[in-house]
Amino acid sequence: MQITLETKPFATLEMDALVSYVFEDSDPVQGRIAELDQFTEGLLKKLASSGELTGKPLEMTLIHAPRGVKAARLLLVGAGKREKFDSAVLRKIAGAALRYLKSRGAKQFAFVLRENEAVEKAAQAVAEGALTANFESDKYKN
Questions:
Q1: Lower CB count within 10 Å: N or C terminus of the chain?
Q2: How many CB atoms lie within 10 A of CB 14?
Q3: Pick from 129, 127, 78, 104: which is nearest to 17 by CA?
């Protein structure tokens, strides 16, 4: 697995998927997710109002061919309550996202961090979660 840090605008990244997370709030489409919502012409707000995007822990919402971004898919993972969010939760989210996308044939994805994240600490948590989730204990079994 190759992990790189990109500082390009997320809408310009040509990947199999963009991944980010939403909190379990009355309005889960806030901050960086609101930026994604603008690119997708309000689709995320529609999903939130219909109850399909709630932010419950590890709930996956996969959008195919999202408008406004070059990625083939957009995956939003529930992060639970904002006040309980920490690097351990971020590791779980990254790992769950990797397993979810891997099972759907994705080879590469970009993880979009939320606003106000300590970039170094968050990047470390995402990398640790992805590496741990990608480990296959029976890879060399006969």
A1: C
A2: 10
A3: 104
Query: Which run of H or of E encompasses 121?
Result: helix 119-134
Phi then psi for residue 16, to 5 deg, are: -70, -30
- Is this model's pTM higher than 0.85 or not? yes
Cα–Cα dist 116/8, whole Å: 17
Averages of pLDDT over runs of 10 residues in the chain (142 residues) are 71 90 88 88 92 93 90 94 93 95 91 79 89 77 61
Shortest CA distance to 98 belongs to which of 67, 60, 45, 69? Answer: 60
**DSSP tag of 141:** -
pLDDT in tens, 117-126: 677 888 889 9
